[in-house]
Amino acid sequence: MTAGTDRVRQDAERRSIPIEIAERPRAESLEHAAELLGITPAEIVKSLVVKRSDGSYLFALVPGDRQISWPKLRAVVGVNKLRMPEAELALAATGYARGTITPLGSSTAWPVFADERIVGKRVSMGSGKHGYSAWVHTDDLISGLNATVADITIEGSTD
C-alpha cells in the first residue's frame, strides 16, 4: 500500500467505517473505471473538492453518472459562490491528486455534502492513489463523516 491508501485506511478505521481497498488497472476515465470494476458509473462516487469564496473547501460526494448542480449546492451550503479549484489547489487542500481524492484521510477534514442518490448503496470511490479503488457502504461513509445529505446534483457526468 501507499501513503495515500494508508491514510484512507487509517481514517476509515478511526471513524469506524468498514472499507476495502483493492488494486485495479489504472483507468483513463470514470466510465473506464466502472468497466474495469464491473459496475455502472452510478456505483462510483466522485469525491469533488469545492472551493468557497472565503478560501475554505468542502467535499461533494456525487454519483458518477451525475454532476454538481451549482445552484442546489450553493443553497444547501448557504453561500453565493462556489467553484472547482485548479488541480494544484485541490492537491494542497486534500493531500490527494485529482482522480484519487476522498474525504477519508484528507489533509484537512473539510465538511462533506453527499448527494441523496448515493444513500443505501455499496460504491467504489477514490482511495488516495491511482490504480486503487475503495469500496464502502455509503450509509457508513455518510455517518462516519457526519455528511450532510441533500439533492445537490443534476443529470450528466463530467469526468
Overview of this structure, please?
- The chain is of the alpha/beta class.
- The chain starts with a helix and ends with a strand.
- The model has no long low-confidence stretch (mean pLDDT 94).
- It is built from five helices and ten strands; from the N terminus they run H-E-H-E-E-E-H-E-H-E-E-E-H-E-E.
- The chain has one domain: YbaK protein, CATH 3.90.960.
- The strands form two sheets. Strands 1, 2, 3, 5, 6, 7, 8 and 9 form an eight-stranded mixed β-sheet that branches. It has a two-stranded antiparallel ribbon with strand order 4-10.
Brief overview:
This protein has helices at 3-14, 30-37, 70-77, 87-94, 138-145; strands at residues 19-23, 44-52, 57-63, 66-68, 82-83, 112-115, 122-125, 132-137, 148-150, 153-155. By secondary structure, it is α/β, with parallel strands linked by helices.
Task: Name its key features.
single chain; 159 residues; alpha/beta; YbaK protein; two-stranded antiparallel sheet; 28% helix
Helix share bin: 25-40%
Strand portion:
25-35%
**What gap, in angstroms, lies between the N and C termini?**
26 Å
Largest sheet: 8 strands, mixed
Rg, nearest Å: 14 Å
Q: What structural category characterises the helix and strand content?
A: alpha/beta
CATH topological fold name = YbaK protein
The CATH homologous superfamily is termed YbaK/aminoacyl-tRNA synthetase-associated domain
